[in-house]
Structure formats: C-alpha cells, structure tokens
Amino acid sequence: ELKFLSPYSYMLNPAENVFSKVKASAKRILSGLVGEQTLSGVIQESVGTVSQQDCANYVINMMSKLPIAAAGQPYVN
C-alpha cells in the first residue's frame, strides 16, 4: 500500500535537526568572534556540538512522527 507524503517532509529528516544545531552554534561563535578564525574552523567547532545523544533524540523524534505522516495527517508543530 502506498501512502502519500508531501514532496519534502522536513519533520521526517533528522539531518534537519543536526543542521539547525550546527547553524545556531556557528552563529553564536561568529557573533562573539575575537581574532581570526577560518570558516572551516567555525564549521568544525559547530559540528562538534552535536552529540550522539542529540542524534539519538532526533531519530526518536522522527520515529514518533511517522504514524502521523503515514496516516496522511498534516504535521502541526
């Protein structure tokens, strides 16, 4: 049985949560930037803020939303 999902279901993509945390961290680092730091350094430091527990929580959150998507119900945050 096929179920309709919207063309892009961001709530079913844990990578969105990772990128959101990395982006927020990079913004914090850049707002308080003192001295010189490379973009790759900022990105590397920001990626380091994402823990294994964060990733596990993102997947658990995504799995909890699968029944809503499978039922064809709209996602309400």
UniProtKB/TrEMBL annotation:
Any one GO molecular function term: nucleic acid binding
Name of protein: Tc1-like transposase DDE domain-containing protein
